[in-house]
Specification:
alpha/beta, Arp2/3 complex 21 kDa subunit ARPC3, Alpha-Beta Plaits, 4 domains, 8-stranded mixed β-barrel, 5-stranded mixed beta sheet, 16% strand, disordered N terminus, binds ligand C2E, binds calcium ion
């Protein structure tokens, strides 16, 4: 056969295909008796010719075009030999048998087989007629050569036109469109000379003994194999290019719709068909397809299985499989980003917004409230009686209670209000556009909702909440408002819990306390009467101590005041600048001892407040400190919540100090995650993840995944990641196994301790890790 056109569907043309086949078989029946009488030469030709045709037909050349493709078989070469060696009827008969056997063993669709049998026989007969019409009795002359060209061309065109008609019927399109095709002339140019090899064989056969024909077998095989190899490698290279481009492009896409669009586009280019679809079901019969995983569900790219050399369908399948993997990767990457953004902004346990989102929304609400002259209220809610639940029934029970409380809080307010979890057993609720009595009502509802207690492991446990309320006009910024609500909540606790207190009423009381505290602190700072303790930072893999973090300690009237309390007071009053100077001096004083203990590189971490960055004398103070540290590396830690990222002056100071060799660390990283982008523009070398992220990495897979992705992101930005808050061995184990963070800090590894003690610990650590490191 010659150029059987690929057909996409075979529903409509089967009548045509069947009729054609019957015509072909009738022709065969007509010539068969004559061939039978031909005796042993014809029998021998059948015996050798049929297998030859079957084999040659397996090596067609594919000239692909969009939505079709011309397949040129070189088997008609054998027909040409037969026509020149036997009489026309015997030749057509042997050829006909070969065509039938080839088709029946091809594994193609039944209708395609019918069509191909019909075409092969009709075109074969046409070639015989053309040969005899042009050649006449002129054997062994140039005219015979011309007749062979005519026969080959006749074969080609009969085949070509019948195929075009069949496709036209199939697709319901005009025949003309299928006749005029780009690859046609290339096909004729390949086809005719190839068929002349058959003539060459016949000429050799006439004058020499039959075994000489074997000489022709080798060039024939070489031609078949090489045309196929060239076509295949060109096609493979093209497919690889498409796949490569697809992989590159899909990296930049972040929307399902766009990814599917790109998928369709690339799949069409890959298999060169327009008829490709993305479906939710697998391919049907005579279709090929590949599954694209997307989260829990899956999509299918489906294309028609083209009815041609089966090797090409196989290659299409492989290509679609590869494309499916590329696109599934893109979906997975998109999912991970979505999850990360969600987890970073929501509390993994209750799925409530976290502090970061709350502060964003409070800031936005304050802004709107000022413009619209409405009121905003913030409720700070602390659970009473939660610790005993945790202690008695374990963390899992504690977690269940927190989830339950989160649901009750959400049910107690309007849908437009924001319920957030701040951490531990602390929640906050933002009420927008409210009147005083509505806030009272909401607070009462919340108190009542929690007061009913909870059932834990079959035991009724008492619960309650203390609520602090602050109105928008009592706080300048979101942080300020939260702090005021927090203070009011403490007042509620101090007054006996299970109640709510408004910030205004409690103000007078706590202000006196704060003033007293501040006066005492001011005196201590002036006298340099603070202490420092140091907490080592270790390399996760080896336990090697790479640095220490200086933490301020203050004792007022013999009572140790928690750093969170006095640092907050110092920050609010501006005293933190003077306090920071004292801390740097104290650190310098301990530096020599620590350096000697380490006997090599060791970083000194010092916490600073953004207020210090705004102080004109700060740069000089740090430069002086750097010098006096005598070669210790200086790390300045700034809490992420303070958002220095949008202050050009502070950034300039940081850049200047970074140039001098000071490293900056973002502390409590992840709490104000929405701003991660700005890290790239800041001279920051280290991120320290907030304690809350490591809190339950050993209990909750999602926490672990979240910390891991934060670490990955830090790493991707070229930052050193320090995971803080490692308190249990199981947390450390999870850190080692699942989180790729190089450094860690926590009570399990080392507690904060006085300088002399930490020097001793470092000395011991050097001995141990030296043994570990030198084999
Ligand atoms: P920070 O900078 O995040 O410091 C780490 C805090 O976590 C320290 O609390 C440390 O004792 C504690 N910590 C260490 N390991 C663990 C652990 O495994 N689990 C838990 N739950 N906590 C751990 P500390 O000393 O109470 O300091 C509290 C905060 O006060 C510091 O948080 C820092 O923001 C601030 N601060 C401390 N010293 C200074 C200072 O000299 N200047 C300024 N501006 N702030 C300081
Ligand atoms: Ca710190
Ligand atoms: Ca921290």
């Amino acid at each position: 056969m010659g150029n059987h056109r690929t057909r996409l569907r075979d529903s409509r043309s089967w009548v045509f295909d069947l009729s054609l086949c019957l015509v072909g078989l009738a022709l065969l029946a007509a010539v068969a008796p004559h061939a039978w009488a031909g005796g042993w030469p014809v029998a021998l030709a059948t015996l050798l010719g049929v297998p030859l045709v079957v084999v040659v037909a397996r090596f067609p050349m594919n000239l692909d075009g969009e939505d079709g493709g011309i397949e040129i078989g070189f088997d008609s070469t054998v027909l040409m030999f037969l026509l020149c060696t036997f009489d026309a009827r015997s030749a057509v008969a042997v050829w006909g048998v070969a065509v039938v056997v080839t088709q029946l063993t091809s594994g193609k669709r039944p209708t395609a087989q019918l069509f191909n049998i019909g075409v092969g026989l009709v075109a074969g007969a046409a070639a015989a007629v053309a040969l005899h019409a042009v050649r006449g009795p002129a054997i062994g002359t140039p005219r015979e050569l011309l007749a062979m060209v005519a026969a080959a061309a006749a074969y080609f065109f009969v085949d070509y036109v019948l195929s075009a008609i069949s496709i036209a019927i199939d697709t319901g399109t005009p025949v003309r469109g299928h006749l005029v095709q780009a690859g046609t002339w290339v096909a004729v140019a390949c086809f005719v000379p190839f068929d002349l090899i058959g003539y060459l064989a016949a000429v050799v056969h006439r004058d020499s003994p039959g075994w000489m024909l074997t000489l022709l077998v080798i060039p024939l095989i070489t031609l078949l194999v090489s045309t196929r190899a060239i076509a295949r490698s060109r096609e493979n290279a093209r497919r690889l290019t498409v796949l490569f481009e697809a992989a590159v492009r899909v990296q930049a896409l972040h929307e399902t719709g766009l990814i599917i669009e790109a998928l369709l586009h690339d799949a069409r280019r890959l298999v060169r068909m327009r008829d490709v679809e993305v479906l939710s079901s697998p391919p049907a019969a005579y279709e090929i397809g590949a599954q694209v995983r997307r989260g829990k569900d899956a999509l299918w790219i489906v294309a028609p299985a083209r009815d041609r050399a089966r090797s090409t369908v196989g290659a299409d399948q492989h290509a679609l499989d590869a494309l499916a993997v590329i696109v599934a990767d893109a979906f997975a990457r998109m999912q991970l980003t979505d999850d990360m953004v969600h987890y970073a902004r929501h509390d993994p346990l209750t799925d409530l917004p976290n502090r970061g989102i709350l502060l964003d929304r409070v800031a936005h609400a304050l802004h709107l409230a000022r413009r619209r002259k409405v009121r905003v209220a913030l409720l700070f809610i602390d659970l009473d009686g939660f610790k005993p639940v945790n202690d008695r029934f374990g963390h899992a029970a504690g977690d269940a209670v927190l989830v339950d409380v989160a649901q009750r809080l959400t049910a107690s307010v309007r849908e437009s209000d924001t319920v957030a979890r701040l951490g531990g057993d602390e929640f906050a609720i933002l009420l927008e556009d409210v009147r005083d009595n509505e806030v009272d009502a909401a607070a009462e509802r919340i108190l009542a909702a929690i007061r009913s207690g909870a059932v834990v492991a079959g035991h009724q446990v008492p619960l309650g909440v203390s609520i602090g309320v602050a109105f928008g006009d009592t706080g300048r910024s979101a942080e300020h408002l939260l702090r005021n609500a927090d203070m009011a909540m403490y007042q509620a606790k101090a007054q006996g819990k299970d109640q709510y207190v408004q910030y205004e009423r409690s103000l007078g009381h706590s202000r006196v306390e704060r003033l007293e505290l501040l006066e005492s602190l001011r005196a201590s700072v002036a006298a340099g009467d603070l202490r420092l303790v140091y907490q080592p930072v270790v390399q996760v893999e080896s336990g090697h101590i790479v640095g220490v973090e200086a933490l301020a300690r203050w004792t007022s009237n013999g009572v140790a005041v928690p750093p969170d309390t006095f640092i907050r007071a110092a920050e609010e009053s501006g005293l933190v600048v003077a306090l920071g100077d004292v801390v740097m001096d104290l650190a310098v004083a301990d530096a020599t001892m620590l350096r000697e203990a380490a006997g090599g590189p060791l970083t000194m971490g010092i916490n600073i407040s953004p207020k210090q960055l705004r102080e004109p004398a700060f740069v000089t103070k740090v430069e002086e400190t750097l010098e006096r540290l005598g070669g210790m590396d200086l790390v300045l830690e700034i809490t992420e919540r303070d958002y220095v990222g949008n202050e050009p002056e502070s950034l300039a100071v940081m850049a200047r100090l970074a140039e001098r060799g000071v490293a900056f660390a973002i502390d409590d990283f992840g709490v104000g995650f929405s701003s991660i982008g700005y890290l790239q523009d800041m001279p920051v070398r280290i991120v320290k993840t907030d304690n809350s992220f490591s809190e339950s990495i050993d209990r909750d897979e999602r926490s672990c995944a979240l910390l891991s992705s934060i670490a990955m992101m830090g790493h991707a930005l070229g930052l050193d990641v320090v995971v803080e808050g490692i308190e249990r061995a199981s947390q450390l184990q999870h850190l080692r196994e699942h989180v790729e963070a190089p450094y860690a800090q926590g009570y399990l590894l080392h507690r904060p301790m006085p300088a002399a003690e930490v020097a001793e610990v470092i000395r011991k650590n050097r001995g141990v890790t030296a043994l570990v490191e030198s084999p």
